[in-house]
Design a protein that fits this description.
448 residues; alpha+beta; Alpha-Beta Plaits; Trigger factor, domain 2; 23% strand
Length: 448
């Protein structure tokens, strides 16, 4: 346990404050402070000056009562809370300059309080650092190489069908009842025991029969209805339904089928190819789809191979992370999802009602992925540092120029449009590519 000193400036005077620094488990260091004597007295005066206006003392205008009078009326601890706030703030600023700024801090330091009374103030900062691996193992490893799969006629035909679906148009159905695959327009009003419930009524609702977007049994009972027909549909909400007040309960929906529509698709022929592409024949269109699929499959295999390589490096470097690091990563992930929901006008509580997913379940689901991501980031960052892998200004400028040409812009135009976060993304992507190239060159791929 080391003892060090910092200086706090209170009431324009400098006071030395000793503190101890003690290493703990999993990258934690405890910085312990004990304030007594002259520094304690100076803090009390500072706290009095800052907070005296909060006290009501008979016979004195607000903020004019002497310190001893306020303590006599409100007790010896009248200013203690303010004193602690000042002490913690000043000590943090001072120890940050003396120690924290040079540490590889992973999460916001924790603050623990010890004995605080009319003689002393005790508190501790607990700092968690990212771990450092002394003996990195990232050369001479084996990893699985994923080979591209052969593109099939079924895959090509699926792209043709997708293009036909996109080029198709909706046509009203007459003279037959609704069937699976039809798009229907319905009004419905739901009730339980004859009482309407929140969210159970809608008009002009689009429903694709067979999509299973509604409660089980609902769409099946719309099948066979004719346009203009009305009927009651009986269903039971699932036991695990997001809205607890509806879960497991039988409900009746009065449904009116307003319209039935079906999609008319063009024939897959040369005329279709001309309409949806720059090609003159269906064979040429299919050939372009084959090339596109082959390139996509090649990229998928490359990405999967690189993932296997990085996983091999992670597995070769066991790392026991402090739970606080993983907790912070999980919280960031959940908060990111909450922000996304907010952009769509939804809260996490609303999302939970529809899906049954709680914040606790979400945190549990995110945790394994966050742990792996944090480990990967730490290990790869240390490899980059150990091997001095860098993106040179020349490399970066060449990439910027290449991007500008791809977008048919001048270099100056492209640079003027770039945001700081986009610059960071380009730089980090290039650094990542250099790292992967280095690891490929120093490890062995084994074909699947």
């Amino acid at each position: 346990m080391e003892e060090n000193k910092i200086v706090l400036k209170i009431r324009n005077n400098d006071y030395e404050l000793a503190y101890t620094e003690e290493k703990a488990d999993k990258g934690e260091t405890k910085f312990a402070f004990c304030i007594r004597g002259d520094l304690y007295s100076a803090l009390e005066v500072e706290a009095y000056v800052k907070s005296k206006g909060k006290f009501n003392v008979e016979g004195f205008r607000k903020g004019k009562a002497p310190m001893h009078t306020i303590k006599r009326l409100y007790g010896d601890y009248a200013f203690l809370e303010e004193m602690i706030d000042i002490a913690v703030d000043q000590a943090y600023r001072a120890v940050y300059q003396a120690r924290f700024k040079d540490m590889n801090i992973a999460v916001q330091p924790d603050l623990d309080y010890g004995k605080c009374d009319n003689e002393q103030i005790n508190f501790t900062f607990i700092v968690t650092e990212f771990p450092t691996l002394d003996n990195l193992n990232y050369k001479g490893l084996e990893y699985k190489e994923v080979l591209p799969q052969e593109v099939t006629e079924e895959q090509i035909n699926a792209k043709v069908d997708a293009a036909r679906d996109k080029a198709g148009y909706w046509e009203a159905v007459e003279g037959r009842p609704a069937q699976d695959g039809d798009t229907t327009n319905i009004n419905y009003a739901g009730s339980i025991d004859g009482v309407a419930f929140e969210g159970g009524t809608a008009e002009d609702q689009e429903l694709v029969l067979g999509s299973h977007h509604f409660i089980e049994g609902f769409e099946e009972q719309v099948v066979g209805m004719n346009a203009g027909e009305e009927k009651d549909i009986n269903v039971t909400f699932p036991a695990d339904y997001g809205a607890k007040e509806l879960a497991g309960k039988p409900a009746v929906f009065h449904v009116k089928l307003n319209e039935i529509r079906t999609k008319v698709l063009p024939q897959a022929d040369d005329e279709f190819a001309k309409d949806v592409s720059e090609f003159d024949t269906l064979d040429e269109l299919k050939a372009s789809y084959r090339k596109e699929l082959e390139e996509s499959e090649k990229k998928r295999a490359q990405n999967a191979t690189e993932t296997n390589l990085l996983d091999a490096v992670i597995d070769a470097n066991p790392l026991d992370l402090n739970d606080k690091i993983i907790d912070a990563a999980v919280e960031d992930k959940v908060n990111e999802f909450v922000r996304m929901l907010a952009q769509n006008g939804m809260t996490l509580e609303d999302y939970g009602k529809y899906t049954g997913v709680t914040r606790e379940q979400m945190e549990k689901d995110y945790r394994p992925g966050c742990e792996k991501t944090e480990k990967r980031s730490l290990i790869l960052t240390q490899i980059v540092k150990a091997e001095e892998i860098k993106v040179t200004p020349e490399d970066f400028d060449a990439k910027i120029e290449e991007n500008a040409k791809e977008l048919n812009k001048t270099l100056d135009e492209y640079k003027a449009e770039l945001k700081p976060e986009e610059v960071d993304y380009i730089y980090n992507s290039m650094l990542s590519d250099k790292l992967v190239d280095f690891l490929i060159a120093n490890n062995t791929a084994v074909k699947e």
